[in-house]
Amino acid sequence: MYRVLYRKWRPTTFSDVIGQSHVTSTLKNEIRLGRISHAYLFTGSRGTGKTTCAKILARAVNCLDPQDGEPCGKCVNCLGIASGSIMDVVEMDAASNNSVNNIREVLDEVVFSPGEAKYRVYIIDEVHMLTTGAFNALLKTLEEPPAHIVFILATTEVHKLPATILSRCQRFDFNRITPDVIAERLEYIAHEENVSITHDAALLVGAAADGAMRDALSLLDRCIGLADNITSEVVREAAGLAGRDYLFTLADCVINKDIPTAISTVNTLHSASKSMSRLCEELTEHFRTIMLLRTMKTKAKGLLLLSESEVEKAFEQAKRISLVQTVNCIDILTASLEKMFKGGNNKIEFETCMIKLCSPEFSDDLSSVIARIDKLEQAVKSGSYRIADKSESKSDDTAKSSENTSVNNVVSNAAQPAVVKTPTAVQTVQQNRAAAEERLAQLARNAKPLSNWEDILDAMKDRSAVLYYRMAGTNAYVSGDYVLIEAKDETPFEFLRSDPNRNTIVKEIIKQVLGRTYAIGPYRRTAKAAEEQKKNKLDEFIENISNSDIKLTVEE
Ligand SMILES: Nc1ncnc2c1ncn2[C@@H]1O[C@H](COP(=O)(O)OP(=O)(O)OP(=O)(O)O)[C@@H](O)[C@H]1O
Ligand SMILES: [Mg+2]
Ligand SMILES: [Zn+2]
Questions:
Q1: For the chain, what is the domain count?
Q2: 81 alpha carbon to ligand 3 midpoint, in Å?
Q3: Does any ligand 1 atom lie closer than 6 A to the CB of residue 46?
Q4: For residue 75, which of 26, 64, 177, 278 is within the disulfide window of CB 3.0 to 4.6 Å?
């Protein structure tokens, strides 16, 4: 009968255990010196050798003829424990025996000396699953352990263990195993099994296993089921990494801001029974690939689960999306995945997620602003951007609306694009800007100090501490239908601009105090003064883009 590889190839000596030499060398040393603890705790991620080492240790402490700290594998004790005829090594799975009674039963036997072996060894796997009552029972025994008892506790979730247990154990942390170390062991096992595997394929299995040797061996099993000669292609097929073109399609949609294609791709995948949370994970992984390619260039290749041609394709995508936006995408995807795990409609969640990914400029949070700055910087650097057609038809409206000056569009019209390929739209922007600034200066010339401004600030304090904090120290003037706010720098205006609601709230408060509605704007005596106020052209330009209907398109 076929035995799965990971069971067949469970190491029987410490030297067979790979990637955990910090653990195995210490254990061997203790055996050699006869310094055996009463309680060991093995922690670390799954499939890294915890149970394996616990079994080896159970034999090593009982071996009649240990070889340099290793069990000999030949004496009656080694053979008896391996075959299960010696009952002194008790393996418990706390996940299924987690009741207080089960552990009590076990601990009741503790007082008896071992039957045939030197030590009675209790291996408690998944120990974090024990109930509080069970932990307390265990704790009692650990406080005064009989001399012939050894506990080996194993868990992936050490943070769930009570401190009282932790402090009574000798702790060993098992590491994730690196792909190259896994690959070496796989090549050895494949050779013993008369299977051929290429080095690249072994490395790919190693990378796909995420540090777990058990997962690596299961994947190797699946590969053997598919082919005698295991190549990277076979591994990709077995690991379900092949035929994932849709990830490139979705990433393209994000880069091109193509919402319709994104949504229809999601729908097609959903109809084909693709799990939306899995898709979310895969797309996160895809953006991670892009992130690594952007930051590590060719060095990233060894860390990726892609074929050569896919790496090339991903490289192309990486060139078309900024690092900041990539990181932002990963954040959005991770947040969506979390929401999916909390319950709700995964399909709607993923569609919403795709829309967010495709339209970073619609989001108000800081990361999206950074994404916009990043994109603009790229565009300014390459000198290649143009104002899209939509704005041209809109430009008349924009010109008219500049009459209706407010903090928002005064600043937004103040931008000066560097290289522009659509003269009409740009001229409009420039005209608007000049007109708006002229209008502001004119308003400022006729303005009178607003004596109630302190009352207005007080009212702000009642409404929102943050708002008050940002507006404190400002002055204000009245001119016609306008309240013009004077500030030392742009901070209060930036604060107001970052959320349209804030503008509305300020206007409401003004109305509440002054009894009528005013528009608000910055107090700037001359167009030149306005110019000086502008610290950062790029910022202004971003405002222009986000507050108007003008759409920025980066040309390749
Ligand atoms: N460090 C290792 N060296 C060699 N083989 C290993 C190693 N770790 C795991 N394996 C292989 O994986 C199989 C499972 O390992 P083991 O049961 O020891 O993992 P574990 O750490 O206890 O995992 P879990 O947390 O899931 O219980 C072993 O039978 C062995 O084939
Ligand atoms: Mg285990
Ligand atoms: Zn032995």
A1: 4
A2: 10
A3: yes
A4: 64
Residue 184 sits in the same domain as residue 316: no
Counting ligands in written order, the one closest to the CA of 80 is 3
44 Cα: distance to centroid of ligand 2 (angstroms): 10
Helix, coil or strand: residue 278: helix
Structure tokens at 551: 């759409």
With a 6 Å cutoff on the Cβ, whether 43 touches ligand 1 is no
Contact 199, 171 (CB under 8 A): no
- Ligand 2 midpoint to CA 152 (Å): 11
Token pair recorded at residue 432: 């608007």
Percent of residues, the chain, with pLDDT higher than 90: 46
* Residues 224 and 312 placed together within one structural domain of the fold: no
Average pLDDT of the chain? 82
Q: Are residues 111 and 191 in the same domain?
A: no
222 and 146 assigned to the same domain: no
Chain mean position to CA 54: 33
Alpha-carbon span 63 to 74, nearest angstrom: 9
Q: How far is the centre of ligand 3, averaged over its atoms, from the C-alpha of 76 (Å)?
A: 7
Q: Which ligand is nearest to the CA of 184?
A: 1
- Name the burial class of residue 247, with classes exposed (0-12), middle (13-18) and buried (19+) by CB atoms within 10 angstroms of its CB: buried
Decide: 213 in ligand 1 pocket, CB within 6 A: yes
End of a domain among 340, 358, 376?
358
pLDDT over 70 (residue 535)? no
Q: Which domain holds residue 192?
A: 179-238
Same domain for 279 and 217:
no
Whether residue 393 is predicted with pLDDT greater than 70 in this model: the reply is no
Q: Let me know if residue 370 belongs to a domain.
A: no
Q: Does residue 398 fall inside a structural domain? A: no
Closest atom of ligand 1 relative to the 156 alpha carbon: 25
Is 49 close to ligand 1, i.e. is its CB under 6 Å away?
A: yes
**Which of 358, 377, 395 corresponds to the end of one domain?**
358
Residue 258 Cα distances to 439, 545, 551, angstroms = 39, 19, 14
Q: Which of 12, 18, 214, 218 to mutate to test the pocket of ligand 1 (most atoms within 8 A of CB)?
A: 214
Give the pLDDT band (50/70/90) at residue 116: confident
Q: Is the CB of 217 under 6 A from ligand 1?
A: yes
Is 396 part of a structural domain of the chain? no
Phi, psi for residue 336 in degrees, rounded to 5: -65, -40
> Do residues 223 and 170 both lie within one domain?
no
Which one, of 114, 116, 169, lies nearest residue 141 by Cα? 169
**Ligand 3: centre distance to CA 140 (Å):** 31
Q: Residue 113, SS3?
A: coil
Beta bridge partners of 173: 43
Among 171-175, 327-331, 503-507, the least confident range? 503-507
pTM tops 0.70, yes or no: no
